[in-house]
Design brief:
Blueprint (H helix, E strand, L loop, with lengths): L1 H24 L18 E4 L11 E2 L15 E10 L5 E8 L13 E7 L11 H4 L3 E6 H6 L2 E6 L4 E10 L14 E8 L1
Antiparallel strand pairs: 1-2, 1-3, 3-8, 4-7, 4-9, 5-6, 5-8
Length: about 190
Amino acid sequence: MKKSFYIYGSLVLLVLLTLGVTFATFTDKANFVGTTFSVASSDIKLLDVYNGGVDPSNLVDSKPGPTFANITPTWHSDYVVQIYNNGTGPVNLTSKAVYETANDPAELRQIIFVEMYDWVDTNGDGVPQQEEFEQASYGRKTIVKWNTVGFELGTLPQGEIKTLVLRFSTDSISPAKQGTGILFDFSFDALGI
């Protein structure tokens, strides 16, 4: 009986070892350790100096706005803006004007227009010529509409620069508005996509 107990016990032990080895040879595990997530950023900058590159010393969050004096009927003036996508992905660009009515008692915001154009300086002289941008308009709006509706300026890929010409203009100005002025801000906003 002892002998059969040893034989039976040895067989059970041998079966268990065989199953254990078989199980061990057919299982394995691979791990991902330390999985991390980071949230993308929307970060646009203005180039302080036209075509000054994207060196951090030339990237700013704000600049003084342009000053226009002695505007007349059918006047226009072009202003160049360069926007750099310093974020981690593409962004949709928009632009809006911001004003307080106290800074425009003569309501010049109703008669001053802005038209935005994509601009490629094809001759490299740094001066916008009509033929370089006239086909790429985002539309013409009064300062009021720029404030309430704004401009949709499309997608700006990460690490890219968008160069715009802002053409400020008037159609007509009534004599009652002579000597008046307006102060307003405008901004460009980015929404990550």
